[in-house]
Amino acid sequence: MTEDTSHLNPSKLGTKEYWDTAYETEIKNYADNGDIGEIWFDESSQTRIIKWLKKHKISKDSSIIDLGTGNGAMLLELFDEDFTNLTGCDYSEKSIELAKQIASDKDCDCITYKVIDLLSDNVTSLGTFKICHDKGTFDAIGLMEDSAVKKEIYVKNVWNLIEDNGLFIITSCNFCEEELEKSFHDYFEKFEVIPSQTFQFGGKVGKTTTSVCFKKKTL
C-alpha cells in the first residue's frame, strides 16, 4: 500500500457511538414531523453523481451499493431516477432502522438495507456490485483512531465488493483528488473526476467537495 500521509486528527465523527446517537435523534424527528434528516454534503452532491451515471449510460438495473448509507437519501434519489438494483449498508443499526422506515413509507421496495461494518472480515457477505458509492464514509474513517490502518482495510474491502471492471465513486470533503488517488492507488485506477461546485476566495478558486470515479484494478 502506498504510504498514507493525509492524516487527520481523530474526532467524535469517527465513532460509532456518535452516529448511533445522531440517528436515534433523526428517527424521533422523522416520526414526529417526517423529516428524513441531514443529506450529507447537500442534495447537489447527489444530483451531480446521478447526472454522471446517466451521462455514462449506466444501466438502470446495474447493482449499486451505497457505503455508509445513513438515512438512505442517495438511494432514494437513485430510485426516483428508476434505478432498480439498490443496496445500502451502514455499521449503525439506528441508521439502517431509519433508512428502512423511510424507504417503506415511500414504497421503495427495490432497496435492500444491511447492517455491516465495512472494516470487518465479513464484508464479502454483501456480495459484489457493479458500482460502489461512498459519500463521506471514507472521510469518517479518516477521523478514527488508527485511521491509516483502517483506511487501508477499507480500500481493500471495497475492492472485494466490486465486480471486475466495476466502478468506485467517492465524494469527500476532507481529501483532495491527489490524496484520494494516493489512498486508492494500489487497488484502483482513476477513471474520471466528477465536476464539483467551486468557490472563489482571495482570488483563488477552490472546491467544497471532491468527487472521483475509480476503476477496479485486476491484481
Automatic annotation (TrEMBL):
Residue ranges of coiled coil = none
GO-annotated molecular function: protein-lysine N-methyltransferase activity
Q: What class of enzyme is it?
A: transferase
Q: What is its main location?
A: cytoplasm
Which controlled-vocabulary keywords does the entry list? Cytoplasm, Methyltransferase, S-adenosyl-L-methionine, Transferase
GO CC, sorted alphabetically, is: cytoplasm
In its UniProt record, which GO terms are filed under biological process?
methylation
EC number of this enzyme: 2.1.1.-
Can you say where in the cell this protein is located? Cytoplasm
Q: Which residues cross the membrane?
A: none
Q: Which Gene3D superfamilies match?
A: Vaccinia Virus protein VP39
- CDD domains per the record? AdoMet_MTases
What's one Pfam family here?
Methyltransf_31
The UniProt entry, under InterPro entries, shows:
Efm4/METTL10, Methyltranfer_dom, SAM-dependent_MTases_sf
- Every copy of the Methyltransferase domain together lies at 59-190
User: What function is annotated for this protein?
Assistant: S-adenosyl-L-methionine-dependent protein-lysine N-methyltransferase that methylates elongation factor 1-alpha.
Task: Tell me which family the UniProt entry assigns to this protein.
Answer: Belongs to the class I-like SAM-binding methyltransferase superfamily. EFM4 family.
Q: What is this protein called?
A: Protein-lysine N-methyltransferase CHIRRI_LOCUS4919
